[in-house]
Amino acid sequence: MFTGIIEALGTIEAIEPVGTNLQLWVSAPFVQELKIDQSVAHNGVCLTVAELKDGLYRLDVIQESLNRSSLGLLQPGASVNLERCVQAGQRMDGHFVQGHVDTTGTIQQIENQDGSWDVWISYPPEQATLIVQKGSVAVDGISLTVAEDMAGRFRLSLIPYTWQHTNAHSWRVGSPVNLEFDILGKYLHKHFQQLAPRQA
Predict the structure, then answer these.
(1) Angle (nearest 5°) at CA 178 between 169 and 94
(2) Tens-place pLDDT, residues 57-109
(3) Structural domains in the chain?
């Protein structure tokens, strides 16, 4: 379980194909504190530390994760948002983030508002019921609030701290981003979907 409050930026140092999977070697400020089998969210995708070597750690990214996220598009040198899992007893900032990416969106527009940034993101319209104005969404693992919701796209307003301390400053029009919708919304959506045939 995560909160969507990004802890650090990591760097993809090497990418190695293994069958249909990818092995990623990552550097991070907290690599010396990691242990094998720990969970770390990378751009919002929960992945397991598989190996520690020479100041780096290795991740095995399987096909399911590649199909649902933008991890397969990463190149060596890319920055990734990192968050270690929640510890019991700590403050819960952000919102409940599982690290289970639902789909990818695309950056449509970025507007500098002289102190903040408005970012428009398009996403599959069939998932529109999972986005609500003033609700939470994790974008590349960042816990953010939906400022405006329209058919098939939504707007975020990013504060300077988020812009500077995550990979949001590297987003460009056309960039893919990982989206995880709020878990409560997903459960409610499924519940009402199951009720619908009985009410018909």
Answers:
(1) 75
(2) 999 999 999 999 999 999 999 999 999 998 877 777 778 899 999 999 999 99
(3) 8-84 (2.40.30.20), 103-199 (2.40.30.20)
